[in-house]
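for the recovery benchmark. tokens below, seq after
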């Protein structure tokens, strides 16, 4: 039966994307043993009464926490005491010192990638728990974290939404906090950034193009390629959130800003050996003064129907037929509806005065008619079955109806 530490190692490596073959090679265990551990929900060793050191049953947890955040012995002792540990700090310090040799093994698993100033930031979103709002309803809280790759200067913000619009707003706040933006941002494969392996979320792409941001996502099953921000998420939870209480989301974010200034960005970083705040001036970010702030209007992604329309707030708006089946962005601003594909405006309409209307551009109907039945709209208007007032209300009928009147 394998040790608890080995069990934790296998679980951690499998979660990070290592194959069973690779884990077996690293650990020296058989593939069958590795496969069994992967399928286990609880390690069998934990069910046994431990003999010997009082620390034995907590070693797996200690090693994991030390590797993630390099916590002090006192901080780890506080955590494991809540789990039942009643031993001394001395044996805990001794065990943590012995983990130094294992840290070398962990570093071999991932090649650390250092980025030049201003080149890259890493961003992530993580669940942070639930709290009761003013109405007494429990809501989920999420942490947005962005870390500049060179200086390790970081920005964090707490939200109750993970919508794409909220992600963009967090980016704008981060750029304001940094005083500029980097050339590239690295993400995981979150749907707010990528709606498929090949396609960037059009809402987010519009924002990224405005700032000239290069969007990169980590390799599938290789989240450690954005390890800087992964570690910082754990750091925020451990150093800022753990053991504290907040009366509201507003208070949480106020205290968060104080913590960023006085702790996170003022500490000596374990890798750079410098304070992130001291290196920020060397980041060579693109200045905020070079561009007006991106205007975050109401934008939603929609799929163009086979009739050549997009649905928005109960009405539908025409687009050129060549976009049928594609994902586009509907932008609602000052009673105007713009439909975009990539950075190209493909249709503009007055916003419908009420729901249930179909707003059409005559050119779009002409093109659709040519494609479907080879007729033009002038011929169609001679038919008594239907009439169109273009750029106004179009009777909500499918093209099959138009074909039938021929």
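predicted aa per position
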């Amino acid at each position: 039966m394998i040790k608890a530490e080995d069990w934790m190692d296998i679980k951690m490596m499998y979660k990070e994307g290592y194959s069973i073959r690779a884990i077996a090679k690293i650990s020296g265990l058989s593939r069958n043993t590795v496969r069994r551990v992967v399928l286990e929900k609880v390690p069998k060793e934990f069910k046994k009464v431990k003999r010997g050191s009082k620390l034995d049953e907590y070693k797996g947890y200690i090693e994991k926490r030390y590797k993630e955040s390099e916590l002090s012995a006192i901080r780890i002792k506080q955590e494991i005491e809540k789990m039942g540990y009643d031993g001394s700090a001395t044996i805990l310090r001794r065990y943590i010192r012995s983990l130094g040799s294992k840290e070398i093994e962990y570093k071999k698993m991932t090649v650390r990638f250092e980025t030049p100033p201003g080149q890259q930031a890493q961003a992530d979103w993580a669940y942070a728990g639930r709290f009761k709002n003013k109405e007494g309803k429990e809501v989920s809280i999420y942490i947005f974290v962005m870390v500049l790759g060179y200086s390790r200067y970081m920005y964090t913000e707490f939200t109750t939404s993970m919508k794409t619009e909220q992600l963009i707003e967090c980016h704008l706040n981060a750029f304001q906090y940094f005083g500029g933006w980097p050339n590239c941002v690295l993400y995981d494969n979150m749907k707010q950034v990528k709606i498929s392996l090949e396609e960037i979320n059009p809402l987010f792409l519009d924002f990224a193009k405005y700032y000239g941001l290069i969007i990169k996502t980590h390799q599938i099953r290789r989240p450690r390629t954005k390890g800087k921000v992964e570690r910082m998420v754990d750091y925020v939870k451990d150093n800022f959130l753990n053991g504290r209480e907040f009366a509201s989301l507003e208070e949480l974010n106020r205290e968060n800003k104080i913590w960023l200034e006085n702790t996170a960005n003022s500490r000596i970083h374990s890798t750079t050996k410098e304070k992130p705040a001291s290196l920020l001036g060397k980041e060579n970010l693109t200045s905020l003064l070079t561009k007006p702030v991106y205007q975050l209007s109401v934008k939603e992604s929609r799929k163009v129907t086979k009739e050549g329309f997009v649905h928005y707030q109960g009405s539908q708006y025409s687009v050129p037929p060549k976009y049928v089946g594609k994902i586009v962005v509907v932008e609602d601003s000052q009673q105007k509806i713009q439909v975009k594909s990539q950075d190209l405006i493909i249709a503009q309409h007055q916003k419908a005065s009420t729901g249930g209307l179909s707003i059409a551009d005559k050119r779009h109907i002409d093109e659709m008619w040519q494609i479907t039945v080879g007729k033009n709209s002038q011929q169609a208007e001679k038919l008594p079955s239907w009439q169109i007032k273009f750029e106004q209300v179009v009777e909500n009928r499918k093209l099959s109806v138009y074909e039938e009147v021929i």
